[in-house]
Amino acid sequence: MKLAKKLNLSFFGEHGLFIQNRELDTIFKLEVQEFMKKNPDTDFNFSGNIEEILSVLNSQTVFSAFPLLTDDICQQLLVFSHLTSAENFNLRLQIVKNNKCKKFHTDITDYRMLCTYKGPATIYLDPENMITESQIENPSPDIIRYANQGDVMIFAGALAEGDLTPVYHKSPEVSDEDSYRLLLKIDTNTISKWYK
Prior knowledge:
196 residues, alpha+beta, 5 helices
């Protein structure tokens, strides 16, 4: 496996962040709630190229009853593939029930997509600001940004090519069942770079 194509990064602009703001409609939200209710321990993790991941997703019985969610996951994978020109990916759909990634950090990957289908979404530091070490530990409120439920975030990680700034981000706090999150995460499968 390898990431042979050069990544098409023009969609980032000057900074390592792209956000598609979108409002999930009521029917979609109801389907997501039902999915979480029927699959409370969801933690699906698929790696491979587009065809392999789409094939696995479409063959999983658990997804067949939730066509809107499944279609959206497939669509996000296709968009991420197009924007990054990567060939291999790791896709994870998870119900997050605990406090992980509590501190602002960058990811050890080239590029990542995040979409929170339910619950509070990702918190990040505005990449248009020069982020210092002290701001990472104790950021001022004026540089903290909040993604919304349904937003699609694509951002550069610590291994991104070129001059893109990695985006510092963290997970919101999980305090009770109401703050559980259904989170879609897609990474370029950077581990494959070392196995050409």
